Amino acid sequence: MLNIRNVFLSGTALAVLNLAMNHGASAATLDDVLARLDKIEQSNQKLAKENAILRERLQKIEASKKGGAPAAVAAPVAQPGPAVYADQKQGNPVQHAAVASTPAPSGGLVNIGGTTLITKGGHGWIDNTTVTLYGHMDVSGDVFNPSVWDQGTKFGIASNSSYFGVRVRHNLSPYGWDGYAVVAQIESQVDVAAAANERAAFGTRDTYLGLEGPWGAIKAGKSDSPYKRATAPFDPFANTLGDYNSIIGNTGGDNRAEFDWRMNNAVWYESPIVSGFQFMAMFAAGQNYASNNSDYAYGSYTCTGASIRGSGSGFPMIGIGQGNTCNDGSYGNAYSVALTYKGGPLTAIGAFEMHEHVNRTGDSGFILPDLTTTNVGVVNEWAAKAGLGYRIEWALGPLQLYAMYEAIRRNDVMAYNQRQKDDVFVSATQMIGKHWSVSGSWAHGSNSPGSPECLSKNNSNAGNICIDQTTLVVDTSGQYQGNLYSATSNQYALGAKYKFNDFASWYVVASQLNNGIAAHYCLGASGHGYQVCSRDAANDTIGGAKIKAVTTGMTFDF
Fold first, then answer.
1. Is residue 294 part of a domain?
2. How many folded domains does the chain comprise?
3. Please, are residues 475 and 506 in contact by the beta-carbon 8 Å criterion?
4. Which of 339, 465, 469, 526 could be joined to 245 by an S-S link, Cβ 3.0–4.6 Å?
5. How far is CA 162 from the centre of its chain?
């Protein structure tokens, strides 16, 4: 075999000598050429040493494949601990593989498959550590019509819940802590189609540092709540315009689901799975500047329980300490627990969540039909849900069924409490062969005791008041009082998915949301790239709209 280094040096020498002979007085002297060759020789001696190390490693691997002596690297040690969630909504996203166990110490800086490729003085920078890069891409094209008098049919491209993350697991077993590991994750939204803003900053999604052991895991940072995670697999249309958060976990029909949320400033516990059962509990600190939670929390620049620059965020806001701007759902401390069971074809869940001192004073000030004024305060809100799932094996393929009931309550004595209702959700997914599946779902939101809001009629005369405050007469031309009419809502969704493999898929989903005349729920309230709400060009809320949408897109997990 030719020596690669000698060939390289010979070619370099010939090139330099040619330059010397053909450029006369301006060319390099022979001494210059020899000096350059010496530098090249010294550089390649270092390269030769690195090649020798690599060659030795490759020879050991080849010997182990042929039954010879194995490479002198310990095999990865499997570690017990909580299962990685295949969360179909937001967070804990890797659905095709669990986090790999880390190898024993190898003294390497970079390790692939237990083999050291680069060393640094015989000492690794971080040994016994596995770093996993992962991501989820979901881009769709949408056609939708909010059925509002001045809107019409529109087209859109959405990024949905696309994200990128880094997950780290540091194995503590070699140091005497058998079965223990330090775990960490940094996950961020990726605005594939939309213009990126602070929502796409690094660490915007499930991000934490924690300790994992035989008893489970405890983590601190921010994450989807246990209440949210408990029924995430129930929704076959997560993150599309058919997402069940149009109604489920959504208290007043706004464009966010307050009880299907990622909580900041949180610490939580995940138990190991024992006989199919797993328990999760979370505490999220309110740490608010204001006693009524009307300001930003310490260390934050948006209202608690609000989307960035979106619903309930108080945007635009002059600055910290202004107060009375976080008045549309901002809460203090929050508590969330869930118990799940998965055994054979059966799934069962129970979950509860409470938000302390929720500020809804933004709903105050409307004049009611009895000529009194609404006075919405700061009280606790809570939600509870129970659900069942069952998988049926039959000739056509597996059929997955889910059903759940949810109760949302606000501890308020006022007669018009739109935050209090009961929800029902059912879904069915039929797998057909190895690639196709067809799904359908129905979500129902019951009537609330009444809404204190003024809603615009669906016509060109919509104004901004329910009652003429000069004459105290009901304005029948463009507005009506929400509490006089039904706030029930029904959402229907139907779709199909084709899985190319475990990592890539194509989908199409059609959804229709039928709002009662006093209801104003939105499609895509959570997870989709944007929301489709019953609002006109003046941003007046139109009650009773029938919102329709069709969306198709692709997903890719890595």
1. no
2. 2
3. no
4. 526
5. 8
The answer to whether the peptide bond before residue 233 is cis (omega within 30 degrees of 0) is no
Torsion, Cα of 541, 547, 552, 558 (10° steps): 50
316 belongs to a structural domain = no
- How big is the chain, counted in residues? 558
Phi, psi of 227, deg, nearest 5: -60, -40
Cα→Cα distances 324→183, 366, 524, Å:
39, 17, 28
> Do 54 and 180 share a domain, yes or no?
no
Q: Based on the fold, state whether residues 356 and 230 are members of the same structural domain.
A: yes
131 and 12 in a common domain: no
| Per-state percent for the chain, helix, strand, coil, to nearest 5 | 15, 40, 45
Beta strands (DSSP E) in 206-276 are 207-213, 216-224, 262-270
Domain ends where: 49, 65, 81? 65
Do residues 264 and 385 both lie within one domain? yes
Same domain, 474 and 403: yes
The answer to whether residue 100 sits within a structural domain is no
Mean pLDDT for the stretch of residues 474-480: 64
Asked if residue 27 is part of any domain, the answer here is yes
Tokens of 464: 């901004």
DSSP per-residue letters across 108-166: EEEEETTEEEEESTT--SS-SEEEEEEEEEEEEEEEEE---TTT--EEEEE-TT-EEEE
Q: What is the pLDDT of residue 360?
A: 87
The contacts of residue 74 (CB under 8 Å, 6+ apart) are: 103, 104, 105, 106, 114
CATH of the domain at 218: 2.40.160.10
CA angle 503, 552, 428 (to 5 degrees): 75
Read off the amino acid at residue 379.
Answer: V
CB 483 within 8 A of CB 510: no
- Give the pLDDT score at 488: 92
Enclosing domain of residue 21: 4-65
- Statement to judge: residues 269 and 152 lie in one domain: yes
Indicate the Cα dihedral angle 455, 381, 278, 84, nearest 10°: 50
Query: Do 46 and 118 fall into the same domain?
Result: no
Closest CA to 61 of 115, 128, 119, 118: 115
Report which secondary-structure segment, H or E, holds 181.
strand 181-189
| pTM (2 d.p.) | 0.76
Could you report the per-residue pLDDT of 272-299, keeping only the tens digit for each? 999 999 999 999 999 998 889 888 888 8
Tens of pLDDT, residues 181-223: 999 999 988 887 777 666 667 778 999 999 999 999 999 999 9
Beta strand 454-456 pairing with 277-284: unpaired
CB 336 within 8 A of CB 281: yes
Q: What b/e readout covers 234-264, taking b as 16+ CB neighbours within 10 angstroms?
A: bbbbbbbbbbbbbbbbbbbbbbbbbbbbbbb
Question: How far apart are alpha carbons 222 and 264 in whole angstroms?
Answer: 4
- 464, 468, 473, 476 alpha-carbon torsion, rounded to 10°: -30
- Do 193 and 54 lie in one domain? The reply is no
Q: What is the 3-state secondary structure of 340-403?
A: EEEECCEEEEEEEEEEEEEECHHHCCCECCCCCECCCCEEEEEEEEEEEEEEECCCCCCEEEEE
Backbone angles phi, psi at 168, to 5 degrees: -130, 140
Residues 399-450: tens digit of each pLDDT: 999 999 999 999 887 777 888 899 999 999 999 999 999 999 999 999 887 7
